[in-house]
What does this fold into?
Amino acid sequence: MTDQGPVDSRFDGFPGMVLGGYLAGRLASLVGPEAEVRLLRPTPSGRPLRLERTESGARALVDGEVVAEARPASVVVEPPPAPTLEEAIAASADFTGHRQHPFPECYVCGPKRAVGDGMRVFPGPLAGGFLAAPWIPRAAHCDGFGQATLESIWSALDCPGLWALCHAEGTARGRYVVTGTLSTRVLAPVPCDEPQIITAWKTSESGRKLTAGVAIFSRQGALRVVGTQVAVLAPRGVPLHWVFWR
It folds into this structure.
């Protein structure tokens, strides 16, 4: 068992709530480079968080209540070919959140977060329904060996998956999602202070579940990380039609 202190609010996604990808990455560090994490309920920041290993993987608890569970998993994702870094930069310039953003201080995609504080991953549209964004892991996102930490990698993939679902939604209104399950496979280390290319795309929808694929490539197009995001329709959360609000 590992006792942890409160998660600082700088890692919030929704105001007052720990970003799902950050929490998932923390749990994945107890499981391994290929894992699946189910987020069972919103996790408030500023509250004592306990991470502990279990027979099947690991779990996170707040006030004795299980808020997330992790297990080793086989993650098989076939991403589209990587765009160039220049294409990712151009797509990111058209990020909807630059104009309006439902959560502008989100740790990953919030435009109000400063360089080196937030991750500043701003996924914008490419042709074919794909999204792309550059990401440069900074010192605050890396370990002592010059590599992005698992919680940083999982965080960086969380928001692009949701934005991909938003872009695929069309103009229909009234549907909201929350992150349900994240799965990630780290194929190669992600080095600090080097530009990476993140891509995301919707893959399927079944009942209340919508799924997106996500990936991280090197500047040269080498695949480093793949994963999926399963979002669940909910009464409140990220408005899927957000990218069409003006």
